[in-house]
Amino acid sequence: MGSVRTFVDEGLGHSSYLIDLGDGTAAIIDPPRFPTEQLAAAAARSITPRWTVDTHSHADYVSGSPGLAARDGLTFAAPAASRLATPHVGLHEADRVALAPGVSLRVIATPGHTLDHHVYVLERDGVDVALFSGGSLMVGTVGRTDLHGPELTEPLAHDMFRSLRRLESLPDGLAVYPTHGAGSFCSASGASNLTSTLGRERATNPLFRIDDEDAFVETLLAGFGSFPSYFFRLPELNRSGPRFYDRLPPLHRLDVEHVERHIVDGAVVIDTRSVSDYAAAHMPGSVSNALRPAFGGMLGWIIDLDQPIVIVAGEGQDRTEIVRQCLDIGHEALVGELDGGLDAWRTAGRRITGIPLVRADDMVGAVIDVRLRSEFGNGHVPGALNIELGALASAEVPDGPITVMCGHGERAMTGASLLAARGHRDVNVLDGGPDEWADCHGSSLAVF
Fold first, then answer.
1. Alpha helices of 291-433 — where are they, by DSSP H?
2. Is residue 29 part of a domain?
3. Dihedral angle sign, alpha carbons of residues 119, 128, 51, 11
4. pLDDT tier at 1 (50, 70, 90 boundaries)?
5. In-domain check, residue 421
6. Which CATH number is 435's domain given?
7. pTM for this prediction
8. pLDDT (tens digit, 9 = 90+) per residue, 7-59?
9. pLDDT tens-place string over residues 327-346
10. Are 146 and 154 a contacting pair, CB within 8 Å?
11. Strand-pair category, 309-312 with 334-338
12. Average model confidence (pLDDT) for the chain?
């Protein structure tokens, strides 16, 4: 058997894996919706993917396994408990999937992160060589258990404790390959590195080390933060079967009049340009979401999956990447792109506005920090009000001038654009974050 190669979507904190099975074939674990890199890597190694395997019903991204099975003829295997409507091989506790001569996956049912969760032990000639732990055991933490709603959060936390105990017979040297990691909202707090070993996690993972079930549950539940609302939608999309694409669709070009008609019909304009470009000039009512690895995840925080969106992009920005990130989180309602960008809007005589970027010594009015509660608690400007970005569109905010901030500026500009779209007129954005404020004022940040 050959190597295991890791592929990481930094914005979603998602890892998938390509396993060289040693006989000219390969298996893919938890692929993204568009597994272009995985297939290209397989082709470069002259190996042919034959299997695609999911560990659980994903809430943070659209699974690529159904598409790989439909388009490329791979055999799709997934937990039988997922009740998938797409063709697949349903897996149960203690099943062994023969991937290639001498190579198999052993199934261990591990409910907790989700009701249907499985981990897979990769065996070579009967010897355990790797653990694909999905959303259960992660590096430095474990999966959150609140994705099925509040009524199941605590029962699933108890399930998680018992599921982790099922790994006790596995050797310390076993490589651990989780699907969720740093940057993933599917993990409890603490995830950092991408891969680990079982022995390292036994020695250093705070949650994995707790051997009292009640103490484990209490500690786990206390560490949960918020997560995007689209997480409630994707499990059913993945269960029923996502739409298949032979290739990434293009962004249709729309003239100014067509964009205006779409806005009247309920579309929202997403401006993917940099924070500085948006600050200087943008369409009134548009929402800033700078194109970066976290673009798709942020879109899922602030825009409903069914709401049509029109893109305003900057010169040289990768339109393919914009489309990919939207579709990765299940946002299919991409109307198109303003042809000619903001210059076309301006040339047509339409109104342009801006949002000031201010330095730490020029902040005015109430300070709203839109970072996650856990980030805010680790260090914030004294007196700042914490309203997470996902809650800002409907939250009550103080009257008068407002300065919005985050860690660097991207989320703050998104938040400021949402407030401006609601009618707030004196909105500013800190150019930087808490560290810049502390350096400027020579003061310590507040913590809790």
1. 295-302, 319-328, 341-347, 373-377, 389-392, 410-421
2. yes
3. positive
4. low
5. yes
6. 3.40.250.10
7. 0.94
8. 999 999 999 999 999 999 999 999 999 999 999 999 999 999 999 999 999 99
9. 999 999 999 999 999 999 99
10. no
11. parallel
12. 95
∠ CA 38-43-45, nearest 5°, is 100
Q: Of 347, 380, 413, which residue sits at a domain end?
A: 347
| Structure tokens belonging to residue 328 | 């990765």
SS3 track for 108-126:
EECCCCCCCCEEEEEEECC
How many angstroms separate the CA atoms of 103 and 125, rounded? 6
Co-location of 317 and 364 in the same domain:
no
241 token code pair: 């079967």
Residue 246, in any domain of the structure? no
Q: Which amino acid is at 220?
A: L
Q: What number of other Cβ atoms are within 10 A of residue 223's Cβ?
A: 16
Return the bridge partners of 75, or none.
51
CA separation for the pair 371, 412 (Å, rounded):
8
pLDDT at 188 (0 to 100): 66
Q: Under a CB-based contact definition with an 8 Å cutoff, are residues 311 and 270 in contact?
A: yes
Contact 390, 301 (CB under 8 A): yes
Question: What are the tens digits of pLDDT across the range 381-401?
Answer: 999 999 999 999 889 999 999
The pLDDT of residue 155 is above 90: yes
Judge whether 286 lies within some domain: yes
What's the sign of the alpha-carbon dihedral 323, 324, 328, 332? Answer: positive
Q: Each residue of 239-257: b (16+ CB within 10 Å) or e?
A: beebeeeeebeebeebebe
Pairing of strands 366-369, 385-386: parallel
Round to whole Å and give the CA distance between 271 and 269.
6
By the 8 A CB rule, do 152 and 186 touch?
A: no
Phi-psi region at 316: left, alpha or beta (left = phi > 0; alpha = psi -120 to 50): left
Structure tokens at 224: 């949960």
Q: Given the structure tokens 């342009």, which residue do they identify?
A: 352
For residue 415, the enclosing domain spans: 357-441
- Please say whether the beta carbons of 48 and 37 come within 8 A: no
Cα 313–Cα 318–Cα 321 angle in degrees, nearest 5? 105
> What percent of the chain clears pLDDT 70, i.e. is strictly above it?
98
DSSP per-residue codes, 263-319: HHTT-EEEE-S-HHHHHH-B-TT-EE---STTHHHHHHHHS-TTS-EEEE--TT--H
Token duo for residue 412: 């703050």
Do the beta carbons of residue 17 and residue 5 sit within 8 Å?
Answer: yes
In the block, which residue shows the tokens 């309920």? 266
Alpha helices in 88-197 (DSSP H): 150-165
Between these two residues, 35 and 225, which has the higher pLDDT value? 35
- Tell me how far apart the alpha carbons of residues 185 and 60 are, in angstroms, rounded to a whole number: 8
Instruction: Give, in degrees to the nearest 5, the angle at Cα 263 between 313 and 290.
Output: 25
